[in-house]
């Protein structure tokens, strides 16, 4: 196999073996501790401009199948693994991971000591990295010269509205770079869905007569999206039941006066117990967090804290005191992730149903 | 024949949602009093109170209400002299009372419950929370917080089971002889 290098913006280089696309690539390097779900993770638009390190020692053993795409075109920049499985077996498998990455022009590198790499990434947040053929001075110069866009949402979100018809409640999804799991869970509940660009005004959304509104997950820093969106959310939350997920949760918090901070260590995985405060029950869900709501900034007269991460204490859920509007930092769509978190969608649909009947 | 229409998980979720709606409607939980209608309404009221405690770190008083002395649909019922509300260590006067029952059917129980509360004082307001609204009202009463609307036929029965007395959480529709 061809030797390639993973180089980091702090000057270190790791030698490994190439798989996937032979292209040269650069992006922010992040690690994900999920044991399963690599296909969903690689195709999730939140990884736009990012190189993903998987801590699970072997990746690729079940290939790639048509049911597990979280977007049509993956926008991740690279995949770093300890070992890539040469043989993949799964009855639904249609491609190997290697073939899949070639098709989408995403380079991979294997044979990396991911344990050592993750130790570094835990203390050096937000490093950039490249996967290159030669780790020379020129490659490092290139890496240090790259400027990654902070307009990730506009790169991955839909520029045009589209419908995903159903016979049930009328749900409008504001697309900040949504993963398919959100639409899948709404389809399971037979919702009549309209996905709109994140720049859509409150008036245009309300003209669609929604029973409920979802602020989707998406990539990047919510503070880069501008104040207009917060004004839109502030209007919508008083009118229609609202659910924020991931980036949508962060925007919901910002719209209600809380502040967002970059986490000291990004957390991506599904091994953290999350406590639902009201029932004191524990659940697990997929999480991918580089930013979090600053607990001290939350106005308790306006927002209730509903979920807490028991490992790092981060805010995992909020709810408005006066309106049927709530949000979760974690991903409740179980793609990948434990099914128990999907009850968030049941709660949301139930809420839209009750309001719908009162009209 | 019994058919389960609400399972344990759905019942938990319904009570959680009702709790959030109580906070929403009352703009907080200051001055709130929960009164559960015996038997199962008391346990449901306790569960809502424990949720409010988890969320707000405040203890909301919970009373137990026995409406048997106030009913109009039980023949030969003796007028009762014992206090209908027990376990409540506060007055209801000027409080926001949330009445909690398992099933809303004819509305006669709730009418009796309101009379019993009014005999004790003059609340600021009375709201009604029920786990199940099965329709067929005989009085102009409606619930403010509903766990689940279950349209039923007159000859069907709704059986609510709660863990504390029945060993399980469920709502079943029972048709015919069981």
Automatic annotation (TrEMBL), chain A:
<keyword id="KW-0315">Glutamine amidotransferase</keyword>
<feature type="region of interest" description="CPSase">
    <location>
        <begin position="1"/>
        <end position="169"/>
    </location>
</feature>
<keyword id="KW-0665">Pyrimidine biosynthesis</keyword>
<keyword id="KW-0436">Ligase</keyword>
<keyword id="KW-0028">Amino-acid biosynthesis</keyword>
<dbReference type="InterPro" id="IPR006274">
    <property type="entry name" value="CarbamoylP_synth_ssu"/>
</dbReference>
<comment type="similarity">
    <text>Belongs to the CarA family.</text>
</comment>
<dbReference type="InterPro" id="IPR035686">
    <property type="entry name" value="CPSase_GATase1"/>
</dbReference>
<comment type="subunit">
    <text>Composed of two chains; the small (or glutamine) chain promotes the hydrolysis of glutamine to ammonia, which is used by the large (or ammonia) chain to synthesize carbamoyl phosphate. Tetramer of heterodimers (alpha,beta)4.</text>
</comment>
<dbReference type="InterPro" id="IPR036480">
    <property type="entry name" value="CarbP_synth_ssu_N_sf"/>
</dbReference>
<protein>
    <recommendedName>
        <fullName>Carbamoyl phosphate synthase small chain</fullName>
        <ecNumber>6.3.5.5</ecNumber>
    </recommendedName>
</protein>
<feature type="binding site">
    <location>
        <position position="291"/>
    </location>
    <ligand>
        <name>L-glutamine</name>
    </ligand>
</feature>
<keyword id="KW-0547">Nucleotide-binding</keyword>
<feature type="binding site">
    <location>
        <position position="247"/>
    </location>
    <ligand>
        <name>L-glutamine</name>
    </ligand>
</feature>
<dbReference type="InterPro" id="IPR050472">
    <property type="entry name" value="Anth_synth/Amidotransfase"/>
</dbReference>
<dbReference type="InterPro" id="IPR017926">
    <property type="entry name" value="GATASE"/>
</dbReference>
<feature type="active site">
    <location>
        <position position="333"/>
    </location>
</feature>
<dbReference type="InterPro" id="IPR029062">
    <property type="entry name" value="Class_I_gatase-like"/>
</dbReference>
<comment type="pathway">
    <text>Pyrimidine metabolism; UMP biosynthesis via de novo pathway; (S)-dihydroorotate from bicarbonate: step 1/3.</text>
</comment>
<comment type="function">
    <text>Small subunit of the glutamine-dependent carbamoyl phosphate synthetase (CPSase). CPSase catalyzes the formation of carbamoyl phosphate from the ammonia moiety of glutamine, carbonate, and phosphate donated by ATP, constituting the first step of 2 biosynthetic pathways, one leading to arginine and/or urea and the other to pyrimidine nucleotides. The small subunit (glutamine amidotransferase) binds and cleaves glutamine to supply the large subunit with the substrate ammonia.</text>
</comment>
<feature type="binding site">
    <location>
        <position position="218"/>
    </location>
    <ligand>
        <name>L-glutamine</name>
    </ligand>
</feature>
<dbReference type="InterPro" id="IPR002474">
    <property type="entry name" value="CarbamoylP_synth_ssu_N"/>
</dbReference>
Automatic annotation (TrEMBL), chain B:
<keyword id="KW-0806">Transcription termination</keyword>
<comment type="subunit">
    <text>Homodimer and homohexamer; in equilibrium.</text>
</comment>
<dbReference type="InterPro" id="IPR050137">
    <property type="entry name" value="PyrR_bifunctional"/>
</dbReference>
<keyword id="KW-0328">Glycosyltransferase</keyword>
<dbReference type="InterPro" id="IPR029057">
    <property type="entry name" value="PRTase-like"/>
</dbReference>
<keyword id="KW-0805">Transcription regulation</keyword>
<dbReference type="GO" id="GO:0006353">
    <property type="term" value="P:DNA-templated transcription termination"/>
</dbReference>
<comment type="function">
    <text>Regulates transcriptional attenuation of the pyrimidine nucleotide (pyr) operon by binding in a uridine-dependent manner to specific sites on pyr mRNA. This disrupts an antiterminator hairpin in the RNA and favors formation of a downstream transcription terminator, leading to a reduced expression of downstream genes.</text>
</comment>
<comment type="similarity">
    <text>Belongs to the purine/pyrimidine phosphoribosyltransferase family. PyrR subfamily.</text>
</comment>
<dbReference type="InterPro" id="IPR023050">
    <property type="entry name" value="PyrR"/>
</dbReference>
<comment type="function">
    <text>Also displays a weak uracil phosphoribosyltransferase activity which is not physiologically significant.</text>
</comment>
<dbReference type="InterPro" id="IPR000836">
    <property type="entry name" value="PRTase_dom"/>
</dbReference>
<keyword id="KW-0808">Transferase</keyword>
<feature type="short sequence motif" description="PRPP-binding">
    <location>
        <begin position="97"/>
        <end position="109"/>
    </location>
</feature>
<feature type="domain" description="Phosphoribosyltransferase">
    <location>
        <begin position="2"/>
        <end position="162"/>
    </location>
</feature>
<keyword id="KW-0804">Transcription</keyword>
<keyword id="KW-0694">RNA-binding</keyword>
<dbReference type="GO" id="GO:0004845">
    <property type="term" value="F:uracil phosphoribosyltransferase activity"/>
</dbReference>
<dbReference type="GO" id="GO:0003723">
    <property type="term" value="F:RNA binding"/>
</dbReference>
<dbReference type="Pfam" id="PF00156">
    <property type="entry name" value="Pribosyltran"/>
</dbReference>
<protein>
    <recommendedName>
        <fullName>Bifunctional protein PyrR</fullName>
        <ecNumber>2.4.2.9</ecNumber>
    </recommendedName>
</protein>
């Amino acid at each position: 196999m061809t030797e390639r290098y993973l180089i980091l913006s702090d000057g270190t280089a790791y030698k490994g073996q190439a798989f996937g696309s032979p292209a040269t690539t650069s992006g922010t390097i992040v690690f994900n501790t999920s044991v399963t779900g690599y296909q969903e993770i690689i195709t999730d638009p939140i990884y736009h401009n990012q190189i993903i390190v998987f801590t699970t020692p072997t990746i690729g053993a079940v290939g790639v199948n048509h049911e597990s795409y979280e977007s049509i075109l993956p926008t991740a920049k690279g995949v770093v693994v300890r070992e890539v499985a040469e043989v993949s077996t799964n009855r639904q498998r249609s491609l190997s991971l290697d073939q899949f990455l070639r098709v989408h022009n995403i380079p991979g590198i294997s044979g990396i000591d991911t344990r050592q790499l993750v130790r570094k990434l835990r203390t050096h947040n937000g490093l950039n990295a490249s996967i290159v053929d030669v780790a020379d001075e020129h490659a490092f110069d290139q890496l240090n010269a790259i400027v990654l866009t902070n307009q990730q949402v506009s790169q991955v979100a839909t520029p045009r509205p589209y419908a995903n018809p159903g016979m049930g409640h009328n749900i409008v999804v504001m697309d900040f770079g949504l993963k398919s799991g959100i639409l899948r869970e709404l389809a399971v509940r037979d919702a009549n869905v309209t996905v709109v660009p994140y720049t859509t005004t409150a008036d245009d959304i309300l003209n669609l007569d929604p029973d409920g509104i979802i602020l989707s997950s998406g990539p990047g820093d919510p503070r880069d999206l501008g104040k207009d969106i917060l004004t839109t959310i502030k209007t919508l939350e008083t009118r229609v039941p609202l659910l924020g997920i991931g980036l949508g949760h962060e925007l919901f918090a910002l719209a209600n006066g809380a502040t967002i901070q970059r986490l000291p260590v990004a957390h991506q995985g599904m091994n953290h117990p999350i406590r639902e405060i009201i029932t004191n029950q524990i659940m697990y869900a997929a999480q991918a967090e580089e930013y979090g709501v600053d607990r001290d900034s939350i106005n308790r007269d306006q927002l209730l804290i509903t979920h807490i991460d028991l490992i790092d204490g981060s805010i995992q859920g909020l709810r408005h005191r006066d309106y049927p509007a709530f949000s979760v930092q974690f991903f409740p769509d179980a793609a990948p992730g434990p099914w128990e978190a999907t009850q968030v969608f049941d709660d949301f649909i139930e809420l839209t149903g009750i309001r719908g009947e009162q009209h | 024949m019994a058919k389960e229409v609400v399972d344990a998980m759905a019942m938990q979720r319904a009570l959680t949602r009702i709790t959030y709606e109580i906070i929403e409607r009352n703009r907080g939980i200051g001055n709130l009093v929960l009164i559960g209608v015996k038997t199962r309404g008391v346990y449901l009221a306790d569960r809502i109170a424990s949720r409010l405690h988890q969320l707000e770190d405040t203890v909301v008083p919970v009373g137990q209400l026995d409406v048997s002395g106030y009913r109009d649909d039980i023949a030969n019922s003796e007028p009762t002299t014992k206090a209908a509300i027990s376990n409540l260590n506060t007055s209801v006067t000027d409080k926001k009372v949330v009445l909690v029952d398992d099933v809303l059917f004819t509305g006669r129980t709730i009418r009796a419950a309101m009379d019993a509360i009014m005999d004790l004082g003059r609340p600021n307001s009375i709201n009604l929370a029920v786990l199940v609204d099965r329709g067929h009202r005989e009085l102009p009463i409606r619930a403010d917080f509903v766990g689940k609307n279950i349209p039923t036929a007159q000859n069907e029965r709704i059986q609510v089971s709660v863990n504390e007395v029945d060993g399980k959480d469920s709502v079943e529709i029972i048709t015919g002889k069981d």
